[in-house]
Every structure is written in C-alpha cells, then in structure tokens.
Amino acid sequence: VDLENPDCPIYLFKGLRSDKDINNTIVLARRIARGPQKISSIAPANRTCITSTPLDPMTAFSMCNIAGVKSDSYILDPFAGSCTTLLAAAMIQPDCHTVGIEITHNGIVNRSDALLDFESRNLTKPLAFIHGSAIDESIRDRARNYIRMEQKKKEKL
% helix / strand / coil in the chain, to the nearest 5? Predict the structure, then answer.
C-alpha cells in the first residue's frame, strides 16, 4: 500500500453529529466527485440554455466521476436536455469527446443555446447534439457514427 499516493484515499470525519451521545462518531468516506471549484458555473441561473427540468450540477459532476470520465473518454448522453452532464464531463476532462441526444424540439431545449454554454466557458463542444429519440436505433447509430469518425481521426494522427 502506497500511503503517500494512494489509489483510493479514505477520509475520516469525527463528530459530525451534534447528538451528545454520538459526538464521538467516526465516519469513513471516499470522495466520489471532483470538479471545478465553482460547480455553480453550470447551474441553471448561469446558463444560456434554460429548461424547465434541468439536471442539478452536483448530480452531473457526481455521475461523471462515478462513470470514470478520463482523458479521451467518449460519452453519450441519450437524454441530454440542456447538456448539463456533457458540460460537467468537459469541465472535468477538457479532452473528452461527447455526443448528446435530445427528443424535444428547439422551443423547449434550444440546441444553439446549449452549445453557447460550452463556448462561453471555453469548453470543448459536443461532437454532435442530435435531435431525436434515443429509443430509435437509427438515432443511436448516428451518435455511434460521430464517435467512430472521431476515433478514426485520432488513429490517423
């Protein structure tokens, strides 16, 4: 075990409860999320693309961390909405490659505004933001094709 640079640090928290009988409680915890200091930068109040049911930014960052987004990861969000998950992935790993699928029309989720949210934060835009249903196999094939094209580009380099 490398205690100087552990693969999975464990944190100890003592006295988290104010209950007098339990004030010596020790909790073992593991960090499951890592993101920018200002997660609020992708909160709905700070976004160009605003929807009626946005994903909470902390949830998006947690999902990306649990999924293990790494350098050169390929991420498909089949229910992209305003792209909160794809924004979080791009903030965690700027060189990841993302594709979003969203069924709603531009009156509900404006794809141009969603892409402006990437531009205004100097983040890598999704390879594609496809209008359609993720249940439709042809739509999923389109998303896979964008990823395959990107992989082929990288192979040529």
Answer: 40, 15, 50
Mean pLDDT, to the nearest integer, of 11-25?
A: 60
Match 């700070």 to its residue by tokens: 46
pTM of the model: 0.76
- AA letter at 127: L
pLDDT per residue as tens digits for the range 38-57: 778 888 888 999 888 889 98
**CB contact at 8 A, 130 and 101:** yes
Q: What is the DSSP string of 82-137?
A: TTHHHHHHHHH-TT-EEEEEE-S-TTTS-HHHHHHHHHTTT-PPPSEEEES-TTSH
- Secondary structure letter of residue 44 according to DSSP: G
